[in-house]
Every structure is written in C-alpha cells, then in structure tokens.
C-alpha cells in the first residue's frame, strides 16, 4: 500500500532537480500563445480563495482566465446564522473576492456538510471542467478532516479521464486534451503527506489576497465567524479581531514559503528563492496530463 507514494516521489524528484538547473523564462506565456484557462474547486466559499487566491491573481494579471468553484454553499459555516441567509452572504463575499482577484466564481447549491461523491456530482464537475475548457484543474487532496474537502478531491480525480470522453455528459464538448490536475497544499500526513511540485511566490499580489480575505467577514471577521470561534486567543474587539484573523492568514502563506524554502530556491534560484515571503504550493496529481518540467515552469505565474 506504500508503493504509490514512493513511485510518486521518484517521479517528482527528477522534475524538481530539472527545474533547479533551468533558468526561468521572462513570462509564463510565450508571445502568441492563447491564454490559459484554469478552474479551481474548493469545498466551500473561501477554500479556493485561501489555497490559490494568490496564484489566481497572478494568472489573471497576466491575461489568463481563472474560475473558482465552491462545491457547497457554505450554509452552516457560522455560529450565529445559517441556511439561505448565510448561503447568500457567502456567495456575495466570494463574488467580491473574484472582483478583487480578477477572476470568475461559481457557488453550487449543495448544502454545507452534505457533498457526496455521487454520479450526479461527478457529472457536474466534469461539465464544469468541459464548459471551461480547462488547461489546469485544482482542488483538495482526498485526505482531509472535512468530508466536503475529501469528496471535492475525489470528484476532481474521478473527472480526470471522463472530461475527454466524448459520450460522457455529451451535452458539453470534451476538452481538447486532458488537463493538468493539481492539489492544494495541506498538513495531513496519512496515508501520505503533501509533496510540493510547484511552490509559487505570491509576494507581488499578496495585497489582493489579503483584501479578498477581508471581504469574507463571515469566515474571518464576525465574532461568530468560523475562524473567530475555532481559533484560540482571538481578540474581542471588531477591529482587533479582524486584524488578528488577517494576520493568521498571512502567516499561513508565510509558513508555506518557509516550509518549502528548498523548493522555492530550486525554482527561483538561490537569491530570489530565499527572499520570497509568501507562497502557495501545489502537487501534481498522478491523474490527468503529466506535464513536463519545462511546461510546468512556463505555465505557473511569477516564475521569471
């Protein structure tokens, strides 16, 4: 049962060594290439924003098309309000985030805590990828404390082959080639830990990510928000609480940069790699198209 992680590590190691010995290009998109199309799935309206808000803003700034999809409406993610009012509020929050980041957004009408890896939801995810004609698909790994996160990862994986099958969900056109599938970073260790393929500096767009976080007070501001009620030592005052929770989010991105500092150095070179303050990290999924090291380096933003 441990053979898959070992094989995956062996596959990723040459990729990182190759990247470490290459000079980065001046742009993630060669002149004349069509814009990339990226779709990122999150379990709730804030997950994709937390895990990939920076890289999304960077892609968008370079003219690429990015869409975030929340698989559930987040209607129980608060300690004072719930149901339709909370779902509407959270949808409006991520819509404001999308404006800040320069991307598109969608929230599916599935109750928070009730996402299942059903055939119907598999079809929904496949349709979304096909309709977007995605080059890159992102989402959670299927190992997480929260069932919605796990099943978002499962549904993304289950769509990896079907998106190119012309007679699966034939009401949508298949993608021209199987997209590259990437996982968000996480701290879970079993059955095996996250192993970064790409670690991307978000320093140049960090203020956009922080503004996005501030636009979601239902999660990062209210006294009864999820973060305020589940994190220790949260201040009581509104201003102090929001500042504290924003600083917690900044620290998460700083921790990613520090934890994967060796990967940053391999990708950016010694000098710049050591200077990166905030980062987001992603792992190449063994499903979907297995992009070459050179292609991944060109596709991800800020690697210049």
Describe the protein in words.
- The chain is α/β, with parallel strands linked by helices and 304 residues long.
- It contains 12 helices and 7 strands.
- The protein has a 7-stranded mixed sheet with strand order 3-2-1-4-5-7-6, sandwiched between helices.
- Helix 5 links the parallel strand 4 (136-139) and strand 5.
- Helix 1 packs across helix 10, helix 2 (47-61) runs parallel beside helix 3 and helix 4 (119-132) packs across helix 5 (147-162).
Helix/strand-derived class? alpha/beta
Strand content: 5-15%
The main sheet comes to: 7 strands, mixed
Shape call = globular
Helicity, as a percent range: 40-55%
CATH architecture name: 3-Layer(aba) Sandwich
CATH fold-level name: Rossmann fold
């Amino acid at each position: 049962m441990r053979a898959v992680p070992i094989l995956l590590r062996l596959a990723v190691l040459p990729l990182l060594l190759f990247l470490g010995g290459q000079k980065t290009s001046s742009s993630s998109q060669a002149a004349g290439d069509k814009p990339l199309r990226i779709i990122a799935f999150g379990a709730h309206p804030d997950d994709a924003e937390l895990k990939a808000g920076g890289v999304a803003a960077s892609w968008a700034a370079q003219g690429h098309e990015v869409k975030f999809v929340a698989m559930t409406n987040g209607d129980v993610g608060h300690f004072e309000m719930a149901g339709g009012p909370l779902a509407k509020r959270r949808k409006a929050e991520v819509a404001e985030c999308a404006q800040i980041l320069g991307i598109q957004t969608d929230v599916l009408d599935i109750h928070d805590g009730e996402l299942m890896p059903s055939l119907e939801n598999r079809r929904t995810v496949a349709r979304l990828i096909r309709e977007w004609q995605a080059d890159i698909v992102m989402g959670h790994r299927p190992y997480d404390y929260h069932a919605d996160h796990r099943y978002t990862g499962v549904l993304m994986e289950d769509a990896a082959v079907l998106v190119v099958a012309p007679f699966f969900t034939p009401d949508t056109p298949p993608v021209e080639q199987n997209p590259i599938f990437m996982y968000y970073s996480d701290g879970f260790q079993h059955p095996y830990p996250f192993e970064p393929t790409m670690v991307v500096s978000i320093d140049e767009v960090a203020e956009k990510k922080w503004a996005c976080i501030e636009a979601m007070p239902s999660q990062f501001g209210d006294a009864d928000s999820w973060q305020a009620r589940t994190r220790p030592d949260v201040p009581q005052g509104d201003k102090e609480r929001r500042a504290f929770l924003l600083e917690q989010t900044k620290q998460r991105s700083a921790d990613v940069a520090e934890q994967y500092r060796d990967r940053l150095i391999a990708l950016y070179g010694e000098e710049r790699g050591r200077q990166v303050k905030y980062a987001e990290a992603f792992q190449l999924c063994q499903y979907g198209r297995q992009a070459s090291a050179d292609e991944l380096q060109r596709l991800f933003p800020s690697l210049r």
